[in-house]
Amino acid sequence: MARVAALAAERVRPGARLVFVRLKVSARSHLLADGGEAARAAFARATCGTPLDGAGIELIPVPVGASCRACGARGEWDGLTLDCRACGAGPLAVEEAPEALLHELVLEDVEE
Ligand SMILES: [Zn+2]
């Protein structure tokens, strides 16, 4: 989360304050395992005492695609089973995806 905070800090324009960060997170990521609690806590620690102090973070789960080598079916991987839902064969080829991507910053203007 320190990296996310650093990236966000670079993008906050002068005269604005960061309200929250939207982060796209792979559905496979451990960041979602506890509903994002640990990620929020880590982000709060990383921004404490910086100009980003008080900003929130929102995690947007991004489905991970998977395809079946046997029958060619494509779909979203549920993160649980690598058996194909169409033909029952496995393992599915799960697509590589970045764990987390900075998606959007929500800013508000600061009155001077
Ligand atoms: Zn299949």
Explain this structure.
By secondary structure, this protein is of the alpha+beta class. It has one domain (2-109): hypothetical protein PF0899 fold (2-Layer Sandwich), CATH 3.30.2320. 19% of the residues lie in helices and 34% in strands. It has helices at residues 2-11, 37-47; strands at residues 16-26, 56-62, 64-67, 74-77, 93-94, 100-109. The strands form two sheets. Strands 2-1-6 form a three-stranded mixed sheet, with helices on one face. The chain has a three-stranded antiparallel sheet with strand order 4-3-5, with no helix packed on it. The radius of gyration is 18 Å and the shape is elongated. The protein starts with a helix and ends with a strand. The model has no long low-confidence stretch (mean pLDDT 92). The protein binds zinc ion. The site of zinc ion (ZN) has 8 residues, from loops. Zinc ion (ZN) binds next to loops.
